[in-house]
Design brief:
With 161 residues, the protein is mostly helical. The protein is 77% helix and 4% strand. A two-stranded antiparallel ribbon has the order 1-2.
Length: 161
């Protein structure tokens, strides 16, 4: 498939993600966007490092001078993080279960489609290792929400944490 079609698919995916982000509601955005944003920054930074040490490569870029992970980070990842926190936060078992499901979906079928399209590919990292990375990051996001995000939200709401 051509890079221009891939760019279009990625752009559409990013735009649809933003629509779903808005559907999460104002309070959910106030409460969970800091943790999702922190993780998005972490994922972006991880990707810069990962491409340098050849864990994976992203060949399709929407914006030529911007890292290829950027539309995924500010689209699907950010939105998915807010929604997962919205529906599972405060129930760690459900949170872990949902994250394992989502991470497995991303690591296997989603990755396979994007690899086939020529968008990105793993080089020195196995799929199970990628899945483990996702799982570790999900635990970091939960901890961020619990220890920092909840306090930030309490200050916004004007209630004690």
């Amino acid at each position: 498939m051509s890079h221009s079609k891939n760019k279009l698919y990625i752009l559409i995916l990013m735009l649809i993600s933003w629509v779903f982000l808005l559907l999460a509601g104002k309070e959910s955005l106030k409460k969970y966007l800091p943790a999702a944003s922190f993780m998005s920054l972490l994922v972006y930074s991880e990707n810069v490092l990962a491409e340098r040490i050849k864990w994976w490569s992203i060949t399709t870029k929407i914006f030529p001078k911007v890292n290829g992970i950027f539309p995924f980070v500010i689209g699907v990842f950010l939105t998915g993080s807010v929604w997962i926190l919205k529906f599972t936060y405060k129930n760690i078992y459900l949170y872990v279960f949902v994250n394992i499901l989502v991470d497995t979906f991303f690591t296997y079928p989603f990755y396979s489609v994007f690899k086939k399209l020529g968008v990105w590919k793993l080089t020195h990292l196995k799929q199970y290792q990628l899945s483990a990375l996702f799982f570790i990051k999900s635990l970091l996001m939960y901890a961020f929400q619990k220890y920092i995000g909840d306090r930030l939200y309490s200050k916004i709401k004007g209630t004690p944490s």
